[in-house]
Design goal:
The protein has one domain (3-55, 81-107). Helices cover 13% and strands 59% of the residues. The protein is built from 1 helix and 5 strands, in the order αβββββ. A hairpin with a 5-residue loop joins strand 1 and strand 2 (33-42). The longest helix has 14 residues, at 3-16.
Length: 108
Amino acid sequence: MTNDRWQEILTQIKDSFEVEEEGTYENEEHGGTTTEFIVFNGPLGRLRLEFSSHPVLVDTKTKYSKRIGSETKVEYVYSSTEKSNTLLIYKYDEALGDWVEFKNNLFT
């Protein structure tokens, strides 16, 4: 999924369906993840699409000592230029009162 394709999907959703909520939030984990989301009522019910963009993991560095009782630290190195994007789709389950990840063989 690319940023351009995500923008096309957003435009199609806004033109075709009633949008309940839309926004962006950031998470500092994994090098800084930015997530855009949209909640709308579609033909399958209430849906939530989340488009996440995060830096690519380049390297892991392990720091340790052979001494007894010493601790091991793992340092993750993320790319400053390359990004990885993911799209997650959730459907609202009335019985649970929560969002459930939408699994469909057409998406894999």
